[in-house]
């Protein structure tokens, strides 16, 4: 079978970064082709190129054997390529049908929308491909899985023959994943082609017909699921043997640093996000929190940091109840915080690095001297961080935005550890950073733990969790469903626990 | 990388040159020599009498500019400066006219009333934004209209105002000499004593914003609400406080005229300070020195426009010029920002490339 999409020698540079380099890919008609790679391996850039959102610097794209140049998504849609984004782009207060036709409404003479024709077409699509959605339902009433089906229907409505799905399972619960996979199989049986981007190996192995692995901006391998296994894929992705679980000789201390008792969080619109969560982190201990994203981790972090208030239960740090404390007071009581979204929550992107050193520490010495800022101290400590954590920057006066993600993250880690906090909340500390930066950050965390810091590590990276944690708490559906000993748990058992199943 | 100060000056100069070229084009179409007109404006605008007048006008403009700038630092568009200023100067005049106090105390009271009334009026928009998510632009525009109506209502002779015999002008009672600020003789004219406070306001603005933790919290919230919040800043409170502070400064805009010149509020007090203030903050790039130059330049244009009619050129051409300057400055700053960013990324790129060779080989060989 010949390739329906062929990508040859694609190269894309951003200033200072090579996002894609010598990328080669051949996708056959009617297959599910998975593209896997670590965060930052260049998958998203490649998909943006294929969807016409970004133009490559060089290289060729062939569709059906013909060379094409995509200047905008309109060009790629015209050739039957559609994209289902990771973050849904739907209008809540419009119906499914309205959302599907939005932007390509069939109109009769005079601009009147032919609603009936559109509905008929949508119903035909949903029937043909087994997509279970009701055209007249309001999108606001839909669950995540249904919303995703609307997104898929939207793309099919525009006549897509090749669907790009960007990390489609990141937001889904296991049953929804199964349903999605059934839908995808249905689509390929009708001759459609699916490009499936993921970094979840199990999923890829179970659904893909072909797997391409990307690493550091380039395609490094193409494998068939039946002839490979998880370990081999992971090593292809990371480019080396997986790190062995470290041997830690010291036992965690006994002093309770963080204690969460029966905490519940209900959003203002009455969604219960956390149910009766209880956790303890001791001095010299790393407690890993594992879970599928969106199971209450963000709210748990925000609750500890005082950014949202627990609806019931309480949080104490070193014996002091901080449930009603402000974020400022919590930080000043000796808590460091590495936020999961560094660019949104961790940095002032258009402020120089040394000013970013002050962020979060602007109320206490040495960054502040009463009412006044201590600029000299901020600059001095920024220089220290740049050296100690190997932050690659020409100076501490450049804007944070100019640095690469890994270097931004190293700077944040250095900042949050500068005051030797008793408790560190580390949320996805190495997400999207290169392998070198990851090793450095892991070392920092391990050293801090040995020095007695209590660390709450929230991560989606199982390697990271196994590598660093003394204990593993598993969060699912807003509940702590298990607390495991990483030495006596296999990744498979952890994976099961994360989906909410009991471990025998 | 050229210094930031260099680029900071290039942009406004480029904007002014652009608008001069445009105006010259218009003048040439009218068969008038741009050089002659420019010369006439400079001769007239820099006459001693006009320099004094320009300094007095610029002083008010400057305060409005600082009020706008502190809002800009928070990403707030304080278009309510007009209402804040009008209500503030009105109540300051009313309170000042009520009684006689020891001189320093009396003047201080009047200034305080201005700042407090302006601040309270500004804080309404701040409250609506923080608690109800209403854009400060919308609420401020409405508050401007309410302030104007309120002052007009209260200025009636039966209420807080007076009407001089045989005059159409309405004003508040004259403030006693103890509540008047002396003028400073300069070039044969009289400069408002309040200009000293104006300099102080600029200085305080700079120190507060750049040297204090309060200023850091303010700028951090303006740069990124979420990052500031995660950094322990009470970001909603900062928005509220900034809006109130901007209003308080705006409340001092008319003080020079009130304390040293008219000694009462009247319907002839100028309006339009909001747009001028915002334009000056843009032109001066929110920097106290930059705004000072911009304010004087604006006042110069206002005054020297007076000579245009004598030369057969409509003086509205100055309004066109001011408009073009504001438009071009936005473009010029954006260009400068991009140049700076590119230079910076190049530097960062080369810094990581050279360092990375020794550290890792992660696909950087081609970088």
UniProtKB/TrEMBL annotation, chain A:
Family matches, as Gene3D superfamilies: P-loop containing nucleotide triphosphate hydrolases
Predominant location category: membrane
Subcellular location(s) of the protein: Cell membrane
The keyword Lyase belongs to this UniProt entry's keyword annotation: no
Membrane topology: Peripheral membrane protein
UniProt keywords, alphabetically: ATP-binding, Cell membrane, Membrane, Nucleotide-binding, Repeat, Translocase, Transport
GO CC aspect terms: plasma membrane
InterPro entries per the UniProt record, alphabetical: AAA+_ATPase, ABC_carbohydrate_import_ATPase, ABC_transporter-like_ATP-bd, ABC_transporter-like_CS, P-loop_NTPase
Domain ABC transporter: 5-241, 258-502
GO molecular function: ATP binding; ATP hydrolysis activity
Protein known as: Unannotated protein
Organism of derivation: freshwater metagenome
UniProtKB/TrEMBL annotation, chain B:
GO molecular function, one term: transmembrane transporter activity
Pfam family, any one: BPD_transp_2
Localization per record: Cell membrane
Topology term for the membrane: Multi-pass membrane protein
CDD domains referenced in this protein's UniProt entry, alphabetically: TM_PBP1_transp_TpRbsC_like
Alphabetically ordered keywords of this record: Cell membrane, Membrane, Transmembrane, Transmembrane helix
InterPro entries: ABC_transp_permease
GO cellular component: plasma membrane
Main location: membrane
Membrane-traversing stretches: 5-29, 51-72, 84-101, 107-128, 137-155, 191-209, 238-259, 265-282, 289-305, 317-336
Stated name of the protein: Unannotated protein
Organism encoding this protein: freshwater metagenome
């Amino acid at each position: 079978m010949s390739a329906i999409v062929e990508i040859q020698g694609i190269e894309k540079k951003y200033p200072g970064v090579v996002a894609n380099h010598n990328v080669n890919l051949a996708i056959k008609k009617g297959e599910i082709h998975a593209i896997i790679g670590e965060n930052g391996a260049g998958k998203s850039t490649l998909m943006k190129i294929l969807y016409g959102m970004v133009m490559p610097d060089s290289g060729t794209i062939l569709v059906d054997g013909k060379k094409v140049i995509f200047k905008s998504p309109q060009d790629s849609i015209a050739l039957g390529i559609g994209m289902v984004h990771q973050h849904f782009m739907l209008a809540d207060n419009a119906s499914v049908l309205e959302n599907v036709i939005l932007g390509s409404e069939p109109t009769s003479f005079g601009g009147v929308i032919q609603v009936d024709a559109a509905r008929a077409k949508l119903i035909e699509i949903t029937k043909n491909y087994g997509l279970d959605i009701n055209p007249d339902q309001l999108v606001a009433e839909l669950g995540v899985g249904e919303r995703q089906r609307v997104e898929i229907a939207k793309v099919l409505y525009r006549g897509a023959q090749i669907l790009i799905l960007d990390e489609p399972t990141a937001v889904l619960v296991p049953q929804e994943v199964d349903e999605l996979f059934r839908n995808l199989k249905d689509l390929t049986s009708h001759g459609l082609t699916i490009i499936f981007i993921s970094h979840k190996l199990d999923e890829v192995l179970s659904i893909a017909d072909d797997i391409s692995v990307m690493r550091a901006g380039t395609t490094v391998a193409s494998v068939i699921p039946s002839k490979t296994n998880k370990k081999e894929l992971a090593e292809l992705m990371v480019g080396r043997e997986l790190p062995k679980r470290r041997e830690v000789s010291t036992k965690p201390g006994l002093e309770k640093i963080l204690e969460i008792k029966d905490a519940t969080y209900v959003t203002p619109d009455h969604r219960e996000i956390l149910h009766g969560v209880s956790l303890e982190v001791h001095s010299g201990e790393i407690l890993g929190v594992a879970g599928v994203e969106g199971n209450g981790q963000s709210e748990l972090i925000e609750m500890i940091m005082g950014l949202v208030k627990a609806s019931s239960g309480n949080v104490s740090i070193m014996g002091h109840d901080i449930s009603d404390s402000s974020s400022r007071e919590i930080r000043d009581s000796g808590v460091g915080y590495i936020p999961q979204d560094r660019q949104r929550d961790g940095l002032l992107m258009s402020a120089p690095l040394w000013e970013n050193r002050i962020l979060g520490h602007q109320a206490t010495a040495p960054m502040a001297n009463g009412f006044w800022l201590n600029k000299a101290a901020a600059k001095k400590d920024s220089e220290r961080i740049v050296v100690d954590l190997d932050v690659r920057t020409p100076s501490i006066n450049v804007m944070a935005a100019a640095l690469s993600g890994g270097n931004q993250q190293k700077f944040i880690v250095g900042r949050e550890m500068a005051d030797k906090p008793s408790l560190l909340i580390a949320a996805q500390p190495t997400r999207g950073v290169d392998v070198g930066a990851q090793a450095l950050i892991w070392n920092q965390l391990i050293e801090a733990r040995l020095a007695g810091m209590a660390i709450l590590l929230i991560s989606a990276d199982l390697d990271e969790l196994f590598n660093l944690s003394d204990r593993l708490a598993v969060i699912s559906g807003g509940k702590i469903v298990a607390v495991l000993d990483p030495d006596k748990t296999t990744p498979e058992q952890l994976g099961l626990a994360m989906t909410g199943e009991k471990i025998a | 990388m050229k210094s930031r100060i260099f680029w900071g000056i290039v942009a406004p100069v480029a904007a002014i040159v652009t608008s001069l070229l445009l105006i010259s084009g218009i003048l040439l179409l009218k068969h008038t020599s741009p050089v002659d007109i420019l010369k006439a404006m400079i001769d007239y605008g820099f006459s001693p009498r006009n320099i004094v007048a320009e300094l007095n006008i610029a002083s008010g403009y400057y305060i409005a500019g600082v009020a706008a700038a502190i809002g800009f630092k928070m990403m707030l568009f304080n278009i309510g400066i007009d209402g804040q200023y009008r209500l503030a100067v009105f109540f300051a005049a009313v309170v000042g006219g009520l009684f006689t106090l020891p001189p320093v105390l009396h003047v201080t009271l009047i200034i305080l009333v201005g700042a407090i009334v302006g601040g309270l009026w500004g804080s309404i928009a701040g409250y609506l934004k923080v608690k109800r998510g209403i854009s400060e632009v919308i609420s401020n525009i409405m508050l401007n209209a309410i302030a104007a109506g309120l002052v007009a209502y209260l200025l009636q002779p039966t209420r807080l105002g007076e009407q001089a015999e045989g005059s159409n002008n309405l004003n508040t009672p004259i403030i006693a000499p103890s509540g008047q600020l002396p003028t400073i003789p300069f070039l044969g004219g009289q400069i408002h004593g309040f200009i000293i406070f104006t300099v102080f306001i600029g200085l305080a603005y700079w120190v507060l914003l750049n040297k204090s933790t309060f200023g850091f919290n303010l700028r951090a919230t303006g740069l990124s609400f979420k990052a500031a919040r995660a950094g322990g800043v009470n970001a909603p409170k900062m928005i509220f406080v900034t809006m109130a502070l901007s209003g308080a400064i705006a409340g001092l805009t008319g003080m020079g005229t009130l304390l040293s010149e008219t000694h009462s509020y009247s319907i002839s007090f100028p309006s339009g300070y909001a747009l001028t203030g915002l334009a000056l903050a843009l032109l001066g790039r929110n920097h106290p020195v930059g705004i000072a130059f911009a304010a004087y330049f604006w006042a110069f244009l206002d005054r020297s426009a007076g000579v245009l009619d004598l030369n057969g050129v409509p003086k509205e051409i100055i309004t066109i010029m001011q408009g073009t300057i504001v438009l071009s400055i936005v473009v010029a700053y954006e260009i400068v920002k991009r140049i700076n960013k590119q230079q910076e990324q190049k530097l960062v790129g080369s810094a990581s490339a050279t360092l990375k060779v020794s550290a890792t080989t992660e696909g950087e060989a081609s970088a």
